[in-house]
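Record type: monomer structure entry
Structure origin: computed from sequence
Chain ID: A
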Amino acid sequence: MTEYDTVLFDSDGVLVEPPTYETKVEATRAAFTEVGVKRPKNHHIDEIVNGTTVERLHEICAAYELDVNTFWEARERLDEESQFKKFESDSRTRYDDVTAISDVSQTCGIVSNNHHSTIEFVMDFFDLQSTFDTYYGREKTVESLDYKKPNTHYLDLALSELGGESALYVGDSEHDVIAAHQAGMDSVFVRRPHCTDVTLSTTPTYEINNLHEIPEIVG
């Protein structure tokens, strides 16, 4: 069995419930409205919600003659505010098995595609500061879109900061598994209710049903 010195966790879908598709759509529509677009095309909203690229975002904004940075500032701000409201109203919460991480003796961190400031909110709101030694999320900039997983950018930063040599990354998506392997890490795929029936095209190092299995994996 591999000996790990570092365990990194995704946030949405692993530590906390992921934002709903409807919540993300509402925030995106609100952003279009704020910048003067009353009837954005549904497929443009879907592209943004499902994960656009820098190049494609420029094309979408050009279709409405929008300044890309102005639109994206509105979208990221409103998206984050919508997430805060869901947490504060208890309609989105932390998974109960996150307590199992306290039994992990290795250095632990968070690496997420969500905003860095949203991860900071999650840490404070759920009192997780003592559980994790560092956390990395995405800056609320257009350029940060190209650093999202499966890009290893934020995984590399976290591992470098923590000084880990043998790391494990715990996620709930195929992109998490791919990013981990590309970063030279082993991977854990957690089958939460939202991804129970997902078929992966790549094989994770481990597959689990809840975080209570992590302490056993890392020994």
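Annotation 1: The first strand starts at residue 6 and ends at 9.
Annotation 2: Residues 21-88 form one domain.
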